[in-house]
Structures are given as structure tokens and as C-alpha cells.
Write a structure and sequence with these properties.
314 residues; Rossmann fold
Length: 314
């Protein structure tokens, strides 16, 4: 079966998703008659008006209970509508993982836009950080709307960049003017240095940047402090090195590390802290099931743990 494109719109209730989707489906440039399944997982005050759309090609299906968000349900809707694409208005209180698990394999995310009401953004981030981060981390574009004239946009910029360094950002002001983000975010380390030195406080930021653009670091030599992971399945000439990273909250702390080839690896033990100087490559490694970043060590030295053992993005 051919891939079915999915256009995903995320954000909290009353963030502007419905209005944007309605206007998009009224536009002949996007809606040229393709049969469209509009999957609504969150109903706000604004409702869709199919009569304003140029074709009789949009079929609305609603899921109100998260337990109904399953592959079986989505396939049922697709058979009913014979849809050629899916538009999803997602529930801001549900993690995106729920949707990704429910989408059949032939459904491919073509575009993901996140809508944020500027008047509630900072408060929501403080009180629902995990849910906010969840929507920002994979968004292709984040649109902040209802911005008062002369408002400081830097807090919004930092909010997005703390989760996603690659996302485009747009600011829509109360008068309808739209400004696209052009704020530069210089990295706190020199990617062109003979040896890129990653400070303890910058590990999470570096790892995020590296995973976003691996080719930038292909062939580069790095120096950083990390914690060792080894077990009986890892060859004597290899170990894993990285840091525990908290991207959002304590519930999502995870070990972010890479395979590292070194002839003295068998002398290391799990939980050893080391300073590694190594060349980074991107490709297949014996510890990976797919392509990824791995290191070839030039020097490895036992050291003390950093002041903050958990690395963070903010």
C-alpha cells in the first residue's frame, strides 16, 4: 500500500488549530479535491464549516476518548471515507506517542505544526512542561498567535529552542502581522575548533544539536565528560559513554550516549566517569541496529563526576 500523508496540528485547547485548518481546507492550493479524513481529537468552541470548503471531499471523524485512538479505529475511518490523506487536530492533553502508536505503518507524517496562544504559553510551560515539550520537540513549525504589539518574543523563542533547535517559529500579532523568527542561537562551543570541547553544562544541548544535524559533526574530534556503560554483550574494545539527560522533567530522564571504540575499554566499569577525546563518525556500528553516531577514542581518562550529574537543556 502506498504511503498516506498525515498533516498533524498540535497545541492546547483554543490555541487556533481549528481556525487554521478551516482556512487551509478553504484554500484551493491545498484542497484541490483530494478525499480528506479530518480526524478531530479535541473539540473546542469553534466548529468546522464544510460548506465553505471548495469540494465535497472532507469527512470529519471525532475521537473523544483516548482508548478509541487505535489502528483499528483509524483503518475503519479510512475504509469508510476512502481518504487519500489525513488531517489530525490533536488533543493537547494527550502525548503524541499515543497517536504515533495508533497510526498504521502506511501513514506518514508529512507536516507537523504546533499552535501556541502567547497569552498562556509561559504559564502552560511552567505547569504542564511535559505536555508542552512533547508538542514542541518534533514540530516542523511553531506558531505563536495573539501576541500583543511590542511584546517581548524572546521568552517564546527560548521556549521552543529548549525543546527543538531545528523548528521554524512564527509570531502572529493581534493586528494580523506575522513575523518569522530570525534570532541567532550561537552554540556555546566552537564546532570548527580542532577539538570541540563540551563543557559539563552544555552536554544536553550538544547532544540535541548533534542528533539534529549529525553530518555537522562527522569527522570532528570532541572532548567531554561522560559516564560509562558496559555489560557482557559489549566487546572488550568498546564501551558506551554519555550522560543522563533531562529534556523535560524528572519522568523523562534518559541516558543519551554513543558507542565508543577504544583498545582499553575492558579496563572500564559501568558508572565510571571519564573524560573522552574522540573522533565522531556517522554510520553503522556493531552495537547499533541502524545508522547512528559513534566515537573512536584518542584518549580516555578516569575523572570525578560533574557538579550536576543530570544534564539539562535549560
Amino acid at each position: 500500500m502506498r504511503d498516506l500523508p498525515v498533516y498533524l496540528f498540535t497545541g492546547f485547547l483554543e490555541s487556533g488549530k481549528t481556525k487554521f485548518i478551516q482556512e487551509t481546507l478553504e484554500d484551493e492550493r491545498f484542497n484541490a479535491g483530494e478525499k480528506t479524513l479530518l480526524l478531530v481529537l479535541e473539540e473546542g468552541e469553534e466548529e468546522y464549516d464544510i460548506s465553505k470548503m471548495p469540494h465535497h471531499n472532507v469527512y470529519i471523524r471525532t475521537i473523544e476518548d483516548k482508548s478509541e485512538l487505535t489502528q483499528k479505529t483509524i483503518i475503519k475511518f479510512l475504509k469508510e471515507t476512502d481518504a487519500e490523506r489525513i488531517i489530525v487536530e490533536y488533543n493537547g492533553m494527550w502525548l503524541l506517542e499515543e497517536l504515533f502508536k495508533a497510526l498504521p505503518r502506511f501513514c506518514v507524517i508529512s507536516q507537523e505544526l504546533c499552535f501556541v496562544d502567547s497569552n498562556t504559553a509561559i504559564t502552560y510551560n511552567a505547569n504542564m512542561r511535559q505536555l508542552m515539550f512533547d508538542k514542541l520537540k518534533t514540530a516542523e513549525m511553531v506558531i505563536f498567535n495573539r501576541i500583543p504589539l511590542n511584546a517581548d518574543i524572546m521568552p517564546f523563542h527560548k521556549l521552543v529552542r529548549g525543546a527543538n533547535r531545528g523548528s521554524n517559529i512564527a509570531y502572529e500579532y493581534e493586528n494580523g502581522y506575522v513575523k518569522y523568527d530570525d534570532i541567532e542561537d550561537p552554540l556555546p562551543f566552537d564546532v570548527n575548533a580542532p577539538v570541540i570541547e563540551i563543557k559539563d553544562l552544555d552536554y544536553a544541548l550538544w547532544f540535541q544539536d548533534m542528533m539534529t544535524d549529525m553530518e555537522k559533526y562527522q569527522g570532528k574530534t570532541l572532548k567531554f565528560k561522560g559516564i560509562v556503560a558496559r555489560d557482557g554483550k559489549i566487546p572488550d574494545t568498546c564501551f558506551v559513554v554519555g550522560r543522563q539527560v533531562m529534556t523535560c522533567c524528572a519522568d523523562d530522564i534518559q541516558y543519551c550516549g554513543m558507542a565508543c571504540d577504544w583498545s582499553g575499554a575492558k579496563t572500564l566499569k559501568t558508572n565510571d566517569w571519564v573524560i573522552v577525546t574522540a573522533k565522531l563518525s556517522v554510520g553503522n556500528h556493531k552495537l547499533y541496529r541502524s545508522t547512528g553516531p559513534y566515537l573512536t577514542a584518542v584518549d580516555v581518562a578516569i575523572t570525578s563526576k560533574p557538579e550536576e550529574e543530570i544534564a539539562t537543556l535549560y
